[in-house]
Design a protein that fits this description.
CATH architecture: Alpha-Beta Barrel
CATH superfamily: Homocysteine-binding-like domain
Largest sheet: 8 strands, parallel, barrel
Number of domains: 1
Helix content: 40-55%
CATH topology: TIM Barrel
Structural class: alpha/beta
CATH class: Alpha Beta
Strand order of the largest sheet: 1-2-3-4-5-6-7-8
Number of helices: 12
Distance between the termini: 24 Å
Number of strands: 8
Radius of gyration: 17 Å
Length: 307
């Protein structure tokens, strides 16, 4: 697939950010209802905190002469979570668009650093243990609301993070295709390297590709520790589809993380070395970021090890 975004990733590596929500909650002491960071967009202080967070990460990319992917703080900004947050659909549309506008403004302040602006989409239910599962058609209809918000904005693409079953990935991909947006699909896995229903990463990618005519621009793995999925990266015919990793700092299982009252930040240097090992096996790996428990220190260590 010869796509301008893929050409960017072929030209140079791209950093992205780390564990936004865990940084805000555990390090900054900010109350994020339902893990929703996009609610900070409602206040000037919240917008400033988000800007400071992104600037810290952008500077790491700038110093390494790498590109940067600006991922909107909208992982929870879909209708079901909005209802829990007592937001209307009009509020939700406005905040999704505002998230993009804030990052577009930030991107313009760094003309010397190549940046891609991505609209972040999260799962409809819990990413670790969904309360229910949708078929692909239902998932497409559900996620169209947020995808269409992004389609009317300045995003370069959308990225669906922490997906734990294939039908939701297929539905989001089809929603993005309908809106004419490039889409990235990122799966999360359990400690055995498989999705929650036992589907392997390889199977998940092949099933999604087959159902969408190779719809996703590329795939990522996020919200799992490298030791959880490194053994699942066997073979070579499908590994070129994985272009990004946003791993957790902790090797705890999802169930253990859900029950944790303290942040497990792990060892940034060790995580950087584990990324380097992944890089040696994933020849097209080009997007390097973090997820739960990581912060700018981990991105610095990953950049030092891999770029």
């Amino acid at each position: 697939m010869n796509h301008p975004i893929l050409n960017c990733l072929d030209a140079k590596p791209y950093l992205t950010d780390s564990g936004l929500e865990t940084t805000l909650i555990f390090q900054d002491g900010i109350d994020l209802p339902h893990f929703a960071s996009f609610v900070l967009l409602e206040t000037e202080a919240g917008r400033q905190r988000l800007q400071d967070y992104y600037v810290t990460h952008i500077e790491l990319a700038r110093n390494r002469k790498a590109g940067f992917i600006l991922e909107t703080p909208t992982w929870r900004a879909n209708p079901d979570w909005a209802e829990k947050l007592h937001l209307t659909l009009d509020d939700l549309a406005r905040l999704n668009r505002l998230a993009v506008a804030e990052l577009a403004r930030l991107r313009s302040a760094y003309p010397d650093t190549p940046m891609l602006l991505s609209g972040c989409i999260g799962p409809r239910s819990d990413g670790y243990q969904p309360a229910f599962r949708m078929d692909a058609s239902t998932a497409e209809q559900y996620h169209r609301f947020q995808v269409d918000c992004f389609a009317r904005s300045d995003v370069d693409m959308v990225s669906a993070m922490t997906l734990c079953y294939v039908d939701e990935a297929i539905g989001i991909t089809r929603a993005a295709q309908h809106a004419g947006l490039p889409v990235v699909i990122s799966f999360t896995v359990e400690t055995d390297g498989c999705l929650i229903d036992g589907t392997s990463i390889e199977q998940a990618i092949r099933l999604t590709d087959n159902a969408t005519d190779n719809g996703p621009l590329y795939y990522m793995i996020n919200c799992a520790h490298p030791t959880h999925f490194d053994s699942a990266l066997a073979g070579d015919a499908w590994l070129h589809r994985i272009r990004g990793v946003r791993a957790n700092s902790s090797c705890k299982s999802h169930a253990e993380l859900n029950d944790s009252t303290e942040l497990d930040a792990g060892d940034p240097h060790e995580l950087g070395q584990q990324y380097a090992a992944l890089q040696s096996r994933l020849e097209r790996l080009a997007v390097f970021g973090g997820c739960c428990g990581t912060d700018h220190r981990h991105i610095h260590a990953i950049a030092h090890a891999c770029l």
